[in-house]
UniProtKB/TrEMBL annotation:
Entries under InterPro entries matching the protein: Cyt_P450, Cyt_P450_E_grp-I, Cyt_P450_sf
Family affiliation: Belongs to the cytochrome P450 family.
Functional pathway: Secondary metabolite biosynthesis
Species in which this protein is naturally found: Acacia crassicarpa
GO process terms (BP): cyanogenic glycoside biosynthetic process
Catalyses which reaction(s): L-valine + reduced [NADPH--hemoprotein reductase] + O2 = N-hydroxy-L-valine + oxidized [NADPH--hemoprotein reductase] + H2O + 2 H(+); N-hydroxy-L-valine + reduced [NADPH--hemoprotein reductase] + O2 = N,N-dihydroxy-L-valine + oxidized [NADPH--hemoprotein reductase] + H2O + H(+); L-isoleucine + 2 reduced [NADPH--hemoprotein reductase] + 2 O2 = (1E,2S)-2-methylbutanal oxime + 2 oxidized [NADPH--hemoprotein reductase] + CO2 + 3 H2O + 2 H(+); N-hydroxy-L-isoleucine + reduced [NADPH--hemoprotein reductase] + O2 = N,N-dihydroxy-L-isoleucine + oxidized [NADPH--hemoprotein reductase] + H2O + H(+)
Name recorded for this polypeptide: Cytochrome P450
Places the protein is found: Microsome membrane
Gene3D superfamilies from the UniProt entry: Cytochrome P450
Protein keywords: Endoplasmic reticulum, Heme, Iron, Membrane, Metal-binding, Microsome, Monooxygenase, Oxidoreductase, Signal-anchor, Transmembrane, Transmembrane helix
Membrane topology designation: Single-pass type II membrane protein
Gene Ontology MF terms: heme binding; iron ion binding; isoleucine N-monooxygenase (oxime forming) activity; valine N-monooxygenase (oxime forming) activity
Transmembrane stretches, start-end: 12-31
Function: Involved in the biosynthesis of the cyanogenic glucosides linamarin and lotaustralin and of the nitirle glucosides rhodiocyanoside A and D. Can use L-isoleucine > L-valine as substrate, but not L-leucine, L-phenylalanine or L-tyrosine.
Amino acid sequence: MQAFSSQMQSRAFLSFILPFWPYFIIFIILIQTLKYPHSSPTPFRKHRLPPGPKPWPVIGNLPEMLSSKSAPKWIHQLVKNMNTEIACIKLGNVHVIPVINPTLACEFLKKQDDIFASRPESMSSGLVSRGYKTTVLSPYGEQWKKMKKILNMDLLSPAKHQWLHDKRMEEADNLVRYVYMSQNNNEGGLVNVRIATQHYSGNVIRKIIFNRRYFGEGREDGAPGTEEIEHVDALFTILRYVFAFCVSDYMPCLRALDVDGHKRILKNATRIVNKYHDPIIEQRIKQWKEGTKAETEDWLDVMVSLKDANNKPLLTIQEIKSQITELMLATIDNPSNVVEWALAEMMKQPEILDKATEELDQVVGKDRLVEESDIPKLNYIKACLRESFRLHPSDSFNVPHVAMRDTVVSNYFIPKGSHVLLSRVELGRNPKVWEEPHKFKPERHLRDDGSNVFLIEADLRFITFTTGKRGCPGVVLGTTLLVMLLARLIHGFTWTAPTNQPVELLELETGPFKAHPLVVVAKPRLPNEVYSLSD
Ligand code: HEM
């Protein structure tokens, strides 16, 4: 009876308190705002902010963002509706500045690069970088400078690139073996190109960092084992959520609640990645300490052996662990996404596929497989890759850049702390820049004088590696992976769609990602002995 009456009391209390919940939340938000006031007035305040939707007090345009199916699509639609090429959307206290025009993009990343060289601090980047110990995710400062210098000088230098040649080639051979073996599968030679490309990227970076392809037993046919599938899936989950407009990044007072579930998903994915990486890293550090390892064979060895001015280890274990995860993330998505789309587009326009195959036969011949030394001569292949980057970027936006002080860009006031988002989708498809923007037309990237095509796009008419302080340090490795992947697939095999299943080019509703994996038939096109590959 007493239990019943206390139940009644708590029900009465609940029905009394429920209508006041919204006021309670607004109260917390107001306290939050008082804790984090807007930046103080500066002389730039006479300039207007870029055009944008009217924000609600305190919460800004968060309600509209939350009621949309996809935040990037909502932002792009706003920009389109306002007929502008730069906008300002207020999410909580943060000014988010989407940009779809290359001249403006160059203002941010070239002319005022010094001001826009920071990154946002967020739940996801803090978690993945173990408290900003890495490069991509760390705000501008001493830690970022330390890590970027190590990448440029010790891991990605031309000499180190040369040193790692054989490891990359082993994986390029493994890719061909994997596709070649599909002839023997009981699906009539069907190849899931997404699996082939994602695991090629995963295999190469695992080989470079850990000197191994497999975490577990591995497989004879070069295909990924269960451990590698779990590892690569977890990396892609992190990539999907790392800059995914998490509500609490704009309303820090909601951080403890994990309202959109992003924290739980990211924690789970990083746990999986750490489960594979941490034991290898810990054992290797021990081996170097005990003197049972003395030969430098991979990036992990390099990282463990780096010394500071006092001959002490330059990197802490946390720095090594977080930087390794970040290097995996940085390598894995662009090659797989861009090459899967490129092959799908080329199969849709067979004359393009024929032209690429002709170039390969001319440069490489039919008696051997493509080698890295062929890359400078494969201009049509590189033009196809550029076209795929332009039309099918691996994400809706470039990694955010943060304004380190108030400034003016193109007569608009950009307040300190603004998040600048160069739109990968809308830069590449901007009709003022590109004729027939939705058509896959590699010829537009060939040069009249026949000179070398590069994947770098320094004018930011679309995004590949960008430029400036925050530009990608992995241009050479990235270019090598991309060209080898597409060139080996096209040179080694003829590709046809299975009967009654034509190739389609549908995008997901949420972004520029291919809705369905490309699953097509591969037939070897070179003499059999060319495929007898080293293990
Ligand atoms: C495969 C093709 C690749 C593409 C298309 C690519 C593209 C990019 C882009 C667009 C950025 C952001 C630049 C900006 O903030 O403006 C970036 C940053 C970065 N990339 Fe790459 N990347 C690739 C491969 C790699 C590889 C192989 C590595 C190293 C293993 C790497 C390491 C990094 C790092 C460390 C940063 C952060 C730079 C900084 O914040 O200072 N990337 N990359």
